[in-house]
Amino acid sequence: MRRRTPSVSRASISAVSLPEGEPTVAMVDALLPEFDHEMGTTRKLLERVPDDRFEWRPHPKSMTLGHLATHVATIPMWGSVTITQPDIDLSGDPTPLAKDRAELLSRFDRHVAQTRAALLGASDAELMAPWSLKSKGQTIFTQPKAGVWRGFVMSHLIHHRAQLSVYLRMNDVPVPSMYGPSADESPF
Hey, what domains does the chain have and what are their CATH numbers? Predict the structure, then answer.
């Protein structure tokens, strides 16, 4: 028997609609386990960033290891910004680069805690509210906050974390397992 695909409309945002007879699930309950897993995996990678290689880059057009690691440590902040604000304008000052691994981890842990708290307090209606990315007052895009969470926060983080794993490999730093074994570590 084929199951009906649940639909979500703006008119019924209090919880995700599932086929009749099944319990409803708040969006945060679906997002939180993935967030916790991905943040744990990301922290394992940041813990391995060598302090003495922050200026290294694989190519003149590439970010330095320190710049990329700072970006990865800062991306979780976008989750809090997405949930608690209606928009952000990127025309402000850039994020200062971390000076060492301790600063990376401190920054990352702070952003993860703030974003997790914001997510825990978010209703489905808040997650479906529009959010805009702007630059110099011009709107680049507007999407529901849940869509921004998926693409601009989680997928963005996973993309740059993968880059960081390659940077570490190129510097002979053991890469932790992420979704299964790495060449250096096996969780099995």
Answer: 38-170 (1.20.120.450)
